[in-house]
Amino acid sequence: MGGPGLVLLGIADNSIVPLTGSMDVLTIWLAARHRQPWPYYALMATLGAVIGGYITYELAHKGGKETMERKLSKRRVRQVSKALERWGFAGVAIPALLPPPFPFVPFLVAAGAMQYSRAKFVSALTLGRAVRYSIAAFLGFHYGTAILRFFSQYYKPALGILIGLAVFGTVMTIIQYFRTRKKPA
């Protein structure tokens, strides 16, 4: 689906069930395959990530700190809250910039639950994701031939590893969900 597919994947990737690394891989692959419009793929990946991140932010914003405490472990709540309180804008922008396997969804949830400013949140998220996906798309454009050659030669093991990582990420998310959800009293 090209660019529109990146938007849809970005929305899913920045939800409560992230698809670890999928946005980066697809952005690189599309920029490598279609060498001319690499900024377009960076823009579409950023757009999808910002929309998905904002949806997660809004859900947590409406649910407040109770939502954050239900979705995250106590240790993770302390870590993310401390980072956001100390760093503010950078507490969202820097995690948005970091590649997988860095867990970013807790920062989306915490920013919403802690009632962080919408404008600052969207600005920080957009900046971090734009830089990240611009780098990914540029690398795909610049090293496209080598990347495509690698994947054509090793596509089965690479696909297996990517599927394995996606399954692992999903299983870990489900385990974390069941470990942290509150039991009715």
Unreliable residue runs: none
Number of strands: 0
Strand content: under 5%
Order of helices and strands: HHHHHHHH
Work out the helix count: 8
Q: Given the C-alpha coordinates, what overall shape results? A: globular
Classify the helix fraction into a percent range. Answer: over 70%
Radius of gyration: 17 Å
Give the overall pLDDT as a whole number.
81
* SS class: mainly alpha
Secondary structure: elements and pairs:
Blueprint: H1 2-13, H2 22-33, H3 38-71, H4 74-87, H5 89-97, H6 105-113, H7 118-142, H8 144-180
Describe this structure in words.
The chain has 185 residues and is an all-alpha fold. It has one domain. It is built from eight helices and no strands. It has helices at residues 2-13, 22-33, 38-71, 74-87, 89-97, 105-113, 118-142, 144-180. Helix 3 crosses helix 6 (105-113) and helix 3 packs across helix 7 (118-142). The longest helix has 37 residues, at 144-180. The model has no long low-confidence stretch (mean pLDDT 81).
Key descriptive features of the protein:
185 residues, mainly alpha, 8 helices
Summarize the structure.
With 185 residues, the chain is mainly alpha-helical. Helix content is 82%, strand content 0%.
